[in-house]
Amino acid sequence: MTIEPVTELGSGGALRLPRARVVPLSAPRASYDTAVERYLTGAGIAESSTRIYRISLTTWGWMLGGEPTPTGPARRGAKPPVFPVAAIDDPALPEVLAELAAARADEMDADTVNRELSIARKAIGWWQRQGWIEGDPTIGIERRPAPPDRTKALAENQIAALWRLDVALREKTQWKMLYESAARADEVLCLNVEDLYPQDKRGRITAKGGATEWIHWQSGTAQLLPRLIARRTRGPLFLTDRKAPAGTPTLDVCPETGRALHRLRHSALTHDAEDGTSTPMLPARSRHASVRSLERYARPGVDSVARHVAERDPAARRRT
């Protein structure tokens, strides 16, 4: 707090008391990078989400610094610009930022762009509440429409072929657990041995947003887990002797098949919906807060639609 000097008398000759001007004690004269780290450690971000948040905020570091974000091979090893977080209040930034964000959106898929924008706005809102910045230069940037991809769910014959692959026990158990539990990849990959309750076929995970929740699996996973755990009582469930390749973008990539592991969750929920799983059970199994969030999953797959059409083919019924 600073005290402004008084040089005049108030009415009636009484001395006017000095006015206090409050200056936020936590306002950092720091770089954007420091503000990002302060946000990640101080805003209650779940440990499982921290890496994705840091990547997104690093991406926005170029644009908030007034520079285009490198893409492709140029991104590897590139250093974001260094600037004080207070520069986000530059009145000229919103116009520049809108152009840079539009250019990036033209090169990236809508889901990625929208996720990065959402993360940036959460961080900016937190910095505003700390008194570090006043404005939000992203206000004029709109989310991109993201047409749904109806091909993400694997067909049941593709799932069956996956089980037949000759792969290590680690991958086989991981795939089974992801499919049978319909859990997110990072939730399963972060499991520790002590989080498992094999007799109940369930495990305790840290979910999206930081909540502690249960996932449940079936007999396929239950048969593989004892071999994977062996005599271990603590530590990571999914150990690996492979060194992660440089620049690996996410945990959600299978090293054996190259497929996005999230597709197993997507497939499980789609197959549940096709088999008539009730509306109350689907969000309980997927741990979505809203039924609306399940729209992308709860749609029959291509094989299910094909069977539906074939079963109602008049010519086929006459042949039968």
Question: What structural category arises from helix and sheet content?
Answer: mainly alpha
Low-confidence stretches: 1-11, 13-27, 242-252
- Order of helical and strand elements: EEHHHHHHHEEEHHHHH
Strand neighbour order, sheet with most strands: 3-4-5
Question: What count of helical segments does DSSP give?
Answer: 12
Mean pLDDT: 78
Count of β-strands: 5
Task: Give the strand content.
Answer: 5-15%
| Helix fraction by DSSP (H/I, runs of at least 4) | 40-55%
Gap between N and C termini:
88 Å
Can you tell me the overall shape?
Answer: globular
Radius of gyration: 26 Å
Main beta-sheet annotation: 3 strands, antiparallel
What does it look like?
- There is one protein chain.
- Residues 1-11, 13-27 and 242-252 have low confidence and may be disordered.
- The protein contains 12 helices and 5 strands.
- The protein is mainly alpha-helical.
- Helix 2 crosses helix 4 (110-130).
